[in-house]
């Protein structure tokens, strides 16, 4: 028997986009995270053991993020798929 629900979940997990923001040796402040959440109107994921990494739900342009944060002191990357090895951790999606 084919598991259609399971295959649909896998398909959706592989299609979702994330925006990854990384700061070397600089943790993200609660204020900056609040600005991003308000600006993109979507979820942001962070782990205490990786304070310099934010994973934003959705595909956001670098220009959009710069307009929210007002600076450009981080690395920016778009990643597709929840289980993509380019993600620093797996978001709880």
Summarize this structure briefly.
The chain has 93 residues and is an alpha+beta fold.
Report on this structure:
With 93 residues, this protein is an alpha+beta fold. It is 33% helix and 26% strand. The protein has a single domain, classed as Alpha-Beta Plaits (2-Layer Sandwich), CATH 3.30.70. The protein has helices spanning 4-15, 30-40, 62-69, and strands at 17-22, 44-47, 50-57, 75-80. The protein has a 4-stranded antiparallel β-sheet with strand order 2-3-1-4, with helices on one face.
Q: Give the strand order, joined by hyphens, for the main sheet.
A: 2-3-1-4
Give the termini separation. 26 Å
> Which structural category do the helix and sheet elements fall into?
alpha+beta
What low-confidence regions span 5 or more consecutive residues with pLDDT below 50?
none
Q: Could you give the count of β-strands?
A: 4
Number of domains: 1
Reconstruct the topology from this structure.
Elements: H1 4-15, E1 17-22, H2 30-40, E2 44-47, E3 50-57, H3 62-69, E4 75-80
Antiparallel strand pairs: 1-3, 1-4, 2-3
Helix pairs in contact: 2-3
Which short descriptors sum up this protein?
alpha+beta; Alpha-Beta Plaits; 4-stranded antiparallel β-sheet; single chain; 33% helix; 93 residues
């Amino acid at each position: 028997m084919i598991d259609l629900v399971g295959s649909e979940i896998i398909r959706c997990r592989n299609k979702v986009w994330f925006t990854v923001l990384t700061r070397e040796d600089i943790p993200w402040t609660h204020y900056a995270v609040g600005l991003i959440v308000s600006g993109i109107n979507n979820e942001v994921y962070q782990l205490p053991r990786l304070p310099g990494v934010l994973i934003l739900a959705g595909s956001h342009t670098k220009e959009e993020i710069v307009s929210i944060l007002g600076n450009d002191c981080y690395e920016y990357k778009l990643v597709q798929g929840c289980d993509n090895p380019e993600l620093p951790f797996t978001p709880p999606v």
